Amino acid sequence: MAISAPRSRGWSTLSVVLHWAIVVLIVVQFINHEWMVDLWRATRRGAEVDATTQTAGWAHVVAGSLVLLAALLRLWDRFAHGRPPYPAEEPTWSLWLARITHALIYAILILMPIAGLIAWFGMIGEAGEIHEFMWTPLLVLIGLHVIGALAQQFWFRTGVLKRIFVPGTV
Ligand code: HEM
Ligand code: HEM
């Protein structure tokens, strides 16, 4: 099943910039999530937190919301303009693995911040639990995705890695 029409050009500049912006934002979330948990627990108890926890916690809210915006914008670009074709020489099984991994990554990049926003602004504990639950699958999928990208480069020897850095590369 083709998710969208393939195009002969590579990724758009917007898609490339958003890909790496999302990577940076996920690293930010990786670094600051403990502060967010402290801020969340203290706020729910009505307790005070220090300035570092306050700032890092709000950075989590901002960076996480930006992930949501970036993922939606990237998906829009992908559906509006298509994506570069998957390499023809790639075996069917790895093609499908890549497609499923990408779909699940997009799903989490959208659902996780939504659950976080509902938890934080609605002070709803269950949404916080759902938010937390998605973290490990996201890390596993990212791990799989990076292994896949490196396998493309060094095993299948396709130009896929280059095209996520250089817009327009097929
Ligand atoms: C894709 C973007 C995001 C990622 C990767 C992310 C990641 C995380 C992680 C790893 C935790 C710690 C879970 C734990 O160990 O308890 C966490 C907690 C939390 N995050 Fe996010 N977050 C994102 C977006 C957001 C957004 C937009 C908000 C909105 C305010 C938010 C609010 C929260 C809250 C309230 C908690 C505490 C929940 C709890 O401990 O039950 N997050 N986040
Ligand atoms: C937070 C980490 C990352 C996330 C969430 C992420 C997510 C994604 C997503 C959603 C796509 C788009 C697939 C599509 O629309 O069809 C993609 C493409 C791609 N990513 Fe990542 N990525 C991450 C890190 C990396 C890293 C570190 C590398 C390189 C080692 C990488 C290499 C690639 C490549 C090569 C593509 C293009 C695949 C193609 O053209 O067929 N990604 N990534």
UniProtKB/TrEMBL annotation:
Residues 11-165 form the Cytochrome b561 bacterial/Ni-hydrogenase domain. GO terms for cellular component: plasma membrane. Its cofactor is heme b. Keywords: Cell membrane, Electron transport, Heme, Iron, Membrane, Metal-binding, Transmembrane, Transmembrane helix, Transport. The keyword Membrane applies. GO terms for molecular function: electron transfer activity; heme binding; metal ion binding. Its main location: membrane. Pfam families: Ni_hydr_CYTB. SUPFAM superfamilies: Transmembrane di-heme cytochromes. It is found in: Cell membrane. The chain crosses the membrane at residues 12-31, 57-76, 103-123, 135-156. One of its GO terms (biological process) is respiratory electron transport chain. Belongs to the cytochrome b561 family. This is Cytochrome b/b6 domain-containing protein.
